[in-house]
Amino acid sequence: MTLLVLVFALLLGYLTARRTVYGVYAVLALLPSYLIRFTIGKIPSTLLEVSILAVALVWFCKLPHKKIYNPAQTRKLFLHSGVLTVWWYLTLFFILATTLAAFISPSHVAALGIWKAYFIEPLIFFSVCISTMRTRTELRTALDFLFIGVACAATISIIQKFTGWWIPNTFWQAVLTRRTTSVYGYPNAFPLIAAPLIPFIFFQIREHSSHIARSLYILLGLSMLLAILFTKSDGALAGLGAGLLVAGVWYKPTRPYIALFTFLTALTIFFIPPLKELFASHFLFQKFSGQLRLSMWQETLEMLKTHPLQGGGLANYQSAVFPYHTLQWAEIYLYPHNIFLNFWTETGLLGLLSFLTLVVFFFVRAVALWLKNHSFTVKTAVIAMIILLVHGLVDVPYFKNDLSVVFWLIIAIIVLEEKRILLQSQAS
């Protein structure tokens, strides 16, 4: 196995050496490969981790070449842009906070593995992206490669809906209670990766003039939506609903229609009891999964009252919350299924603060960029982040190899837009 991994890394390194952006494309296409796990010596790893490190190593070796990294241009950009400097400091703050969390965690060995896979490697890939991708064409191509893995996963999910094949749980496999899992081990995994990418389907449709290309993107988008529906993920539907609402309000011609639609929907739900009960069951935590989350959050907050600064410790949530666990018949999950509680319990108050400052600055800069040039790229990234965060209110949209990469890719899109505008202003 080690030999095969080495050959794979060398081939990917050669591809990256030819042109660094090819390595970026390859990593994005290989996001589901974190499911392929192995050990190198005694160190556990995944194929995705090897891919990121192979690309990053070649990128680092190529840095002295000005085509990859131009020191004079970089200094000029940072001197003339306090914004890029702030991005740099916020990223550094995030690294320091998560590194501290890893080293003070009671589960030290497991914490280092999580720190490497969910924080350091995605940030390395983020650095490769913002120094490598320069044009909208490269961004479009990167998204196309990202969609390869998602399209395959969506296809498998649709097949599962009608056959029940490869679903690992008998309850999810049964026809009446069927929830598809695609290539993953549980239903919510696919919506977590696919839902934030739906806005980028619209971005690709807008960017391409070919009717064939647009038709293919529409087909892909419909497949992704169907696959999300077949998983029965309420969090993903809430996220997509929030994204659609923001998009509709943002686009001036559709504002009256969105307002009317929202009003009529609310009226219908309020006055028709079966719909009211259905809405309450799915979105007001009256279902079993909702009640379980409420209990989980209550236990987590009780634990955080005792350990507000450190949290539960990176990779230590289950042990930390055990003394506060009230539902003895229910398992303790790896994370508390809320993006803010996830960061607080895993990385402590400092880690939560670093995450919040990143997200707030993301939206502040996105609005500023939008006001400057009404970029559709910015709008797409904002809606993607909103979907991710709203879904994250009831799930875990960051603490997984592929999800952390997608989070930093969304941030990279805004940073790249900052750089593009700065370079244009300096050239004019």
Automatic annotation (TrEMBL):
PANTHER family: LIPOPOLYSACCHARIDE BIOSYNTHESIS PROTEIN PA4999-RELATED, TEICHURONIC ACID BIOSYNTHESIS PROTEIN TUAE. The keyword Transmembrane applies. Keywords: Membrane, Transmembrane, Transmembrane helix. Its main location: membrane. It comes from the Bacteria. The keyword Ligase does not apply. This is Putative membrane protein. The chain crosses the membrane at residues 41-61, 82-104, 110-130, 142-163, 183-205, 212-230, 236-251, 258-275, 349-371, 378-399, 405-423. Residues 222-356 form the O-antigen ligase-related domain. It is a multi-pass membrane protein. GO terms for cellular component: membrane. InterPro entries: O-antigen_ligase-rel_domated, WaaL-like. It is found in: Membrane.
